[in-house]
Design goal:
It is elongated, with a radius of gyration of 21 Å. It is of the alpha+beta class and 300 residues long. Strand 4 and strand 5 form a beta hairpin. A five-stranded mixed β-sheet has the order 2-9-5-4-3, with helices on one face. The protein has a four-stranded antiparallel β-sheet with strand order 1-7-8-6, with no helix packed on it. Strands 10-11 form a two-stranded antiparallel ribbon. Helix content is 21%, strand content 22%. Helix 1 (4-17) packs parallel to helix 6, helix 3 (172-180) packs across helix 6 and helix 5 (201-211) packs across helix 6. Bound molecules: zinc ion. Zinc ion binds next to loops.
């Protein structure tokens, strides 16, 4: 699941690649992907004005005060693609009825949208690295959601994955206050998007390893000095991960290429291997479907 560095990379790629583009037409291939309140086709004819990130959410701005908010969830991806011939015909957008509407079968060799594409913007004034003309939202697991809205509705509609203050922008005193007021395990709180937005399992694991703090300690037991160490580790790790375009594990992919921060992971995904700091075996604990890896010796 994309976290802050991956969402930032996607937003930066789109901001750069789509400059000067305009939406020619839209296609909604899987209706539940669009969570409202406006129709995807309300973007037809509008100019792309920029892309940004809030928490793990990617936000595309269009002329006329329109926004496309993307909650990528497990497997949502923005990728460039070629629109099928005839895809932009009137009445094409939103076709498919309720529920699953896989790309329509091609007749007589007509191209269709690739598998798992749930929505697409056919663009003009844009040409991708391979001459693509479209921005596709591909989502294998189908948990991702798109919201088309007015700029004034953005704050209200932001998915839960973007609600809290950004973990890269939170002040040290505020960060400590949020830890001190929670009895949840510190790792759980770091991943609570309402408390602070941007972190998931990968970076929470890496940050606590770097800070030498046990992921299971109640957040309220973290002293101010420890809180400052955690926040400093977060800034360094997230900064480096953004520079390396995020961690390409499972199926994360950014529009202009994969990330490489997975090469720097020291704890995430390393259970059973020696701790890079003390040599003791990294341990794995599984709870509520989530795996936590940590060093019982270095993380107290
Ligand atoms: Zn260790």
């Amino acid at each position: 699941m994309p976290e802050l560095p991956e969402a930032q990379t996607i937003a930066s790629d789109l901001d750069r690649a789509l400059a000067g583009a305009r939406v020619k037409s839209t296609e909604l291939l899987y209706r539940p992907t669009l969570a409202g309140p406006l129709a995807l086709s309300d973007l037809d004819g509008s100019a792309f004005e920029g892309a940004s990130r809030r928490g793990k959410c990617v936000i595309l701005a269009f002329g006329g005060g329109l926004r496309l908010l993307a909650s990528l969830r497990m497997t949502g991806q923005f990728v460039f693609g070629h629109s099928p011939v005839g895809a932009a015909s009137p009445g094409g957008a939103g076709a498919g009825g309720a529920g699953e509407a896989e790309p329509r079968a091609g007749s007589r060799g007509k191209r269709v949208w690739p598998p798992h594409v749930r929505a697409a913007l056919v663009l003009e004034g844009f040409s991708g690295p391979d001459g693509e003309d479209s921005l596709m939202f591909r989502d294998i697991r189908k948990f991702g959601r798109l919201f088309v809205c007015r700029a004034s509705e953005e704050e209200f509609l932001l998915p839960a994955s973007a609600k809290g203050p950004d973990v890269t922008a939170i002040a040290p005193g505020e960060f400590y206050r949020r830890l001190a007021s929670s009895k949840a395990p510190v790792k759980t709180l770091l991943m609570d998007q309402a408390a602070m937005a941007g972190l998931g399992n990968i970076y929470a694991t890496e940050i606590l390893f770097e800070a030498g703090i046990s992921p299971f300690r109640p957040a309220s037991s973290i002293a101010r000095e420890e809180s400052d160490i955690i926040l400093k580790a977060a800034g360094e790790i997230l900064g480096e991960a953004v520079r390396m375009r995020g961690s390409t594990i499972s199926n994360y992919q950014a529009p202009l290429g994969p990330g490489s921060y997975q090469q720097r992971h020291r704890a995430y995904g390393k259970a059973g291997r020696p701790c890079p700091r003390c040599g003791r075996t990294l341990e794995k604990v599984r709870s509520s479907g989530r795996t936590t890896v940590y060093c019982p010796n270095c993380q107290r």
